[in-house]
Write a structure and sequence with these properties.
Blueprint lengths: L6 H33 L2 H24 L1 H8 L3 E2 L6 H14 L5 E5 L6 E4 L7 E5 H6 L2 H16 L2 H29 L8 H41 L2 H13 L4 H4 L29 H9 L2
Parallel strand pairs: 2-4
Antiparallel strand pairs: 1-2, 3-4
Helix pairs in contact: 1-2, 1-7, 1-8, 2-7, 4-6, 6-8, 6-9, 7-8, 9-11
Length: 298
């Protein structure tokens, strides 16, 4: 018989793993900085560091403070109607009460897929968007499971957490890019330090952004597991979300419908809207079968 899982243990475990992974990204950033400082003049390195921080922070913070507007506009979502979407609004209100969070703004996007996402920089500026397909195909308990999952992202400040990861990855990418360009422009200067160190620096500068991106995707998958477990905490009914995921798994992909999902926004959704069947290191979401299995053991 499969081992019973505690949603509290799952929440704590995945939060710790996410924090450790952020630590890995910070270590990569520090190592890259150390290698660059060892190769180039330290004053030049600090100039590069300041530029990368300014560019990364500026770009990411603009996106962060407008994340809800950007996400909603990209999928052409409309505010939920008090008359047409009364059942949806009632479910969101109930889950807001269960989670102790403010009632988020609720939107609906036209799509045959069963899907939903949450966005916003904090619980007071949060939005939840649900597809019209989810409203037609899910039972009340299944819809509650999906909404609880999205409320969990809001409660766990996942947008803020992933913004931190994006800032760090942006800094690493910009730092590596400027470093590689500076080497190319500098040519064969006599005052440059050992050739072996330069080769190590070039290799690390190429690999660091890729490694950081892979870590960020791992963090994204861990946050999905956390949201599943937290959603169970809110509903106290694991089969609701588990059955919704089973319906998502069995859905047929309509190529025209998939075009409604911008790739930049896809990681926000409860399941991969592009329905990639093969799980890889580049996957934004955990394997749906594993998610269902974990929920059935809670």
């Amino acid at each position: 018989m499969p081992q019973k899982l505690s949603f509290e243990d799952e929440i704590a475990k995945n939060k710790i793993k996410s924090t450790i992974l952020i630590g890995v990204v910070i270590i990569v950033f520090v190592l890259l900085g150390y290698i660059i400082a060892s190769i180039l003049d330290p004053s030049f390195f600090f100039g590069i560091m300041i530029i990368s921080i300014i560019i990364s922070l500026s770009y990411t913070l603009i996106s962060y403070y407008n994340s809800d507007k950007i996400a909603l506009a990209s999928v052409n979502a409309k505010p939920a109607s008090p008359h047409e979407h009364k059942a949806l609004l009632n479910v969101v209100e109930n889950m807001a009460l269960a989670s102790g969070l403010p009632m988020p703004k609720v939107y609906v996007m036209e799509s045959e897929q069963i899907n939903a996402f949450a966005s916003g920089r904090d619980p007071h500026h949060a939005v939840i968007c649900v597809t019209s397909g989810a409203l037609r195909k899910l039972t009340k308990q299944e819809l509650e499971g999906v909404i609880a999952h999205e409320m969990s992202h809001i409660a766990n400040f996942d947008i803020r957490f992933m913004t931190l990861a994006a800032v760090l990855i942006g800094m690493i990418s910009i730092l590596a890019e400027i470093f590689l360009r500076s080497l190319w422009m500098a040519g064969d200067k006599e005052d440059r330090k050992g050739g072996i160190l330069i080769i190590v620096g070039i290799i690390f500068a190429i690999l660091a952004p890729l490694l950081s991106r892979l870590v960020a995707l791992t963090i994204s998958r861990k946050r999905e597991y956390t949201a599943d477990a937290t959603g169970v905490k809110f509903t106290r009914y694991p089969p609701g979300l588990a059955n919704a995921l089973k319906k998502i798994k069995q859905e047929h992909i309509n190529p025209n419908d998939v075009k409604r999902y911008p790739k930049a926004v896809a990681p926000l959704f409860i399941s991969d809207p592009f329905k990639k069947r093969i799980q890889t290191l580049m996957s934004t979401h955990p394997d749906i079968n594993d998610r269902i299995s974990r929920l059935e053991r809670m």
